[in-house]
Amino acid sequence: MDIYKPHLNTPPHWFVSNAIYIVTGATLHKKPLLDTDAKRANFCETLLERARILGWSMGAWAVMPEHYHFVARSPENAFSLKALIQGVHSINAKFVNRIDQMPGRRIWYNYWDTCIKSETSYYARMLYVIMNPVKHGLARNPEDYLFSSYKYFLENSEPKFQKMVLSCVDDAQMMDDY
Q1: Is residue 2 part of a domain?
Q2: Is 64 helix (H, G, I), strand (E, B) or coil?
Q3: Per-residue confidence (pLDDT) for residue 93, from 0 to 100
Q4: pTM higher than 0.85, yes or no?
Q5: How many domains does the chain have?
Q6: CA dihedral sign of residues 123, 128, 133, 135
């Protein structure tokens, strides 16, 4: 079932059961608030745990100092995307603020989600996410970046799938001006 939910002052969100989404989130004013390994590791761990609890199947993820991307399949209750994002943002913000001794500071600005509608688009977005740390100069090789799913992708996906993703032309027209 597809349901559209507009929210004032936020991007519109479609909630589609068992659909594959790409999600991008940003820190407030694009400040690099996830500026340590511990902060980015906390975000990754929280994202994966909350996704598991809510039934989201993670395909790819990458967490940078001021934004993140992930590709995941929604469960039957796609409305849980909002709970997934709110939970991750809340838990990570408390962690970051505790480290920085800045209680109550707002960390996260918003998130944008898109349902992926074709196989080609799926491969392109998977590639986009796993290569994003390289695109932003955080690593020379994707396998060197600790806060993405690239190593997981190589170790856990079938060679045929890897070939489809890695040979895809990255034509994902994504908002990513970081």
Answers
A1: no
A2: coil
A3: 98
A4: yes
A5: 1
A6: positive
